[in-house]
Amino acid sequence: MxxxxxxxxxxxxRTTKFLRIPRxxxxxxxxxxxxxxxLLYSPIEQREKQYLRAExxxxxxxxxxxxxxxxxxYRITGKRLxxxxxxxxxxxxxxxxxxxxxxxxxxxxxLSVDESSYETVNTLATRLNVSTKTISxxxxxxxxxxxxxxxxxxxxxxxxxxxxxxTFTKSYQDRVTKASSFRxxxxxxxxxxxxxxRQIVTQHSSTSFNRTATRIAKKQNIAVETVRxxxxxxxxxxxxxxxxxxxxxxxxEREKKIIVRMHSWGIAVSRIANHFGRTRSTIYRAIHQHxxxxxxxxxxxYIELQVFNREDADEVILRQQLTEIHSHxxxxxxxxxxxxxxxxxIWYLFExxxxxxxxxxxxxxxxxxxxxxxxxxxxxxxxxxxxxxxxEDVYFILDQVKVIHGLLIDYHTSHFVSxxxxxxxxxxxxPLWSIFxxxxxxxxxxxxxxxxxxxxxxxxFATTLKNHIMRRLIQAQQDMKKGKAVKRESKEQLVERxxxxxxxxxxxx
Length: 509
Fold this sequence. Notes:
Elements: E1 2-3, E2 9-11, H1 30-39, H2 44-60, E3 66-68, H3 69-77, E4 88-90, H4 91-107, E5 118-120, H5 121-128, H6 132-141, E6 146-148, E7 157-161, H7 162-171, H8 173-180, H9 187-203, H10 209-220, H11 224-237, H12 253-264, H13 269-276, H14 280-296, E8 302-303, H15 313-317, H16 322-330, H17 347-350, H18 357-378, H19 388-410, H20 413-422, H21 432-452, H22 461-480, H23 491-506
Parallel strand pairs: 1-8
Antiparallel strand pairs: 1-2, 3-4, 5-7, 6-7
Helix pairs in contact: 1-4, 2-3, 2-4, 5-6, 9-10, 9-11, 10-11, 12-14, 13-14, 18-19, 20-21, 20-22, 21-22, 21-23
């Protein structure tokens, strides 16, 4: 549901809860993933230099060696870490992450390209006499790339610089030569593969699809996946005389659920493909379609502000890094709790600096803008062929939304705990369960108001929050007076329950 600047609701989406599959951002090193997030909020002038440094560093990394995190940060940014960090990262994990950093940084820039200095995926495939799928495999193995807009008004595309091509072909000369000399199978050889497969199944009816493909691949000296695809394509086109009947029908909903569950357990896609007798691309398509359906049903209410339509909206709204924001908030004046009824173990939750109205409004603009961007990007994803990259990009933005939502909760808890305290006449003799009951009500109210607050209005968030919480607490106290039985819980159980609910609220959008 979106709201315009005057607070009017413009659209509502159905909310459905799905089993959330733990997603991977693609990064192998968490430290480099955090570095990437920080780099994306650097000024444009710095990013234009940093991605070039990252490319140079990528080509110099040796897989078997270990590198200090401080060294990697210095090579890219020219600055040392503010705190001593002895983390060591192995080169084999650094190189793939460097390629992701280069991809993200160039995608955030408008690079000027010279037609004579780059190749696209298609032109490079033609030049090296390989398929575009082979180029995609090489990208995973070490061929770095950039994102650039080749035509005005068109989407950005992957390009490869001459330097990147030269470095890769030099390091993997044998592999490139072998792939370039490969010739596609003609119809005669494809027919031989089908005949061999039918003969094997006739003689050994219990032979699996994968074993059949493996035997034929060894006999004809070709890749197993090539054989699998030829047989699968034949069975799909000739359902009345299919060699393996399960290829004659598309994956049903039950099979999709099993595939998604197996993938969430960490089972390799190749093993899932073998289990179902399908190609890996078919399995990936089923996984991505489920992820798209899950993403589509996430409710993302936001307040649409005029600043979102500016061409430089990213630079204006996202110019400050999240680490700087957190540091700025933590450096404010601390508000002491001074309520002995609250267990000491959670005092740190409520003794937080009060956030200024100007800072709060800035955070709310950022919070709503990120959700606006996620919504816009989500609508570009094709339902039939959902892009894994676009899905990943949306979740990348949503992760930042969660961070902002959590910060707004963290630095407004001192507001609602004071309101809770005012609702008790004898503050030193209040049952602990009663205090925690109202704290949970106030925390839930805070999370709701964060999603609904319009930063363009004159009323401050602190005032808006206080009004909502007071009404919610009055209603909660009236419910408590109805004499319902209260389950007895120890102090530790009450704290654990409150912390669990608070963490759930922080993970909302």
